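Structure ticket #2291
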Amino acid sequence: MKRIAVLITIVFVLSLLVVPLVMAQGKPAPAKEPAKAPAKAAAKPVLSKEPIKIGAIYDFAGPCYMYSETGMLGLRIA
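Resolution: structure written out below.
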């Protein structure tokens, strides 16, 4: 009984030592060079904020399509 208690204690202590070491292996190494500032994102042209076509909504009256203004202009031209 005493041997089992000693064995369990040794396994417990070893697990407390080994688990943090194993978990530390997955962490990335610290950067040797200072981090550079992120580049600025390219400016996107904003024409207008308008809803886009998200599909058909079926109601009791039938399908109801939601188009953007540009989509409606394309339908009129077509």
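Closing remark: The longest strand covers residues 55-59.
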